[in-house]
Amino acid sequence: MIISFLVGNGFDIASGVRTSYSSFYDWYCKQPHENLHIYTFKKEIQNDIDNGGENWADFEMGLGKYTAKFSAETVDDFIECYEDAQRGIIEYLEKETKGRYDAISESESEKLREGVAKFYQELSPAGFDKIDSIFKAKENEDCTIHIMSFNYTRLIDKCAEVLAASPLKAWAYGNSSKLRRLKVNQTVIHIHGTSDEFPILGVNDSSQIVNQDLLSVPYFAEMLIKPQGVAAVERLWHVQAENIIASSQIICIFGMSLGDSDSRWWQLIMDWLRDNYNTHLIIFWHTDIELNRISAFRYAREVDKVKAKFTKYSDYEENVIKSIKERIHVVFNPKHFLQVEFERPLIGAVSG
To answer: Up-side HSE of residue 275: CA atoms within 13 Å toward CB?
Structure first.
């Protein structure tokens, strides 16, 4: 049986690394520059933030909208802004992660392994039983976990190394004496590259580029449309990820905003849920809203918001959406799954 983990920027943040979009733009907009176009571009970023842009997906969608300010004759000015932001992202991430790729402490390693071995323990009782029934039906099958990262950092790779060192062990079926063993594939697929290998930054497809005239500029689409960028550098990241998703029975999404700039992946998983009735999706979701054990209304409303945010990436009939929602499980602010602390080095980190 195959289980897939799709990991986003929320993983780095939860691990104590300041790689949020807000942390980056605070740093980036303060960097000195002499170019008028870049100055204007940074002002535009600040305007987007003031109007509600809060995550990396908002920034990528903003790039598509920003094309409206340029023509085929001035496209080089846009490319200059784009490449300056890309260089800034690489520099910022390298500074922020410097020294953090060292070995994870023994206690943190154990916490990480235990949390992944029991990856569905924080589901509601009903959700837990649904996932546990899959393992009961597959008790004689090997179980392999594959990790796919939407981050440019390699922090999750260090975790995969720890997790793959030996099979994870978890007692099966509640208090049963049967021991379940899970294997983790050490190779992390970085969907959009890494800071040191073709970091692909941009939108999901051509419809998200406001100025369609720029698509006639040679290599512009390869620069700004992520799937075409991956194809242009002749990497198989998307093909590999698609194949793993197709063969999975359970998919977990952790630390992602489910933004439009990655909509192809949400559409792909929606198709996977529609076509395979025994598949389940677990979304680990961060929220600042207090969800106590008293208000059923508040809890149910927030669960449905997350499910609606995901299922909007399809045009299925309502009865199909209803069936899919029954196999989407939401865990708010997980305390155990993929929890690990990367100690901040004493020197070499970004200040402020």
So the answer is: 10
Q: Give the CA radius of gyration of the chain.
A: 21
Give mean pLDDT, residues 136-140: 82
Mean pLDDT of the chain: 89
Q: What's the chain look like in SS3?
A: CEEEEEECHHHHHHCCCCCCHHHHHHHHCCCCCCCHHHHHHHHHHHHHHHCCCCCHHHHHHHHHHHHHHCCCCCHHHHHHHHHHHHHHHHHHHHHHHCCCCCCCCHHHHHHHHHHHHCCCCCCCHHHHHHHHHHHHHCCCCCCEEEEEECCCCCHHHHHHHHHHCCCEEEECCCCCCCEEEEEECCCCEECCCECCECCCCCECCHHHCCCHHHHHCCCHHHHHEHHHHHHHCCCCHHHHHHHHHHHCCEEEEECCCCCHHHHHHHHHHHHHHHHCCCCEEEEEECCCCCCCCCCHHHHHHHHHHHHHHHHCCCCCCHHHHHHHHCCEEEEECCCCCCCCCCCCCCCCCCCC
Q: Is the pTM of this model over 0.85?
A: yes
> Which pLDDT value is given to residue 44?
83
More confident residue, 172 or 321: 321
Predicted local distance difference test score (pLDDT) of residue 36: 86
- Residue 93: what pLDDT? 93
Note the pLDDT of residue 50: 65
CA distances (Å), origin 183, targets 3, 18, 129, 176, 214: 10, 30, 22, 20, 46
- CA 314 vs CA 5, 33, 278: distances in Å: 22, 43, 19
pLDDT digits (tens, 9 = 90+) for 252-305: 999 999 999 999 999 999 999 999 989 999 999 998 877 777 678 888 899 999
Of 126-135, 171-180, 307-316, 327-336, the least confident = 171-180
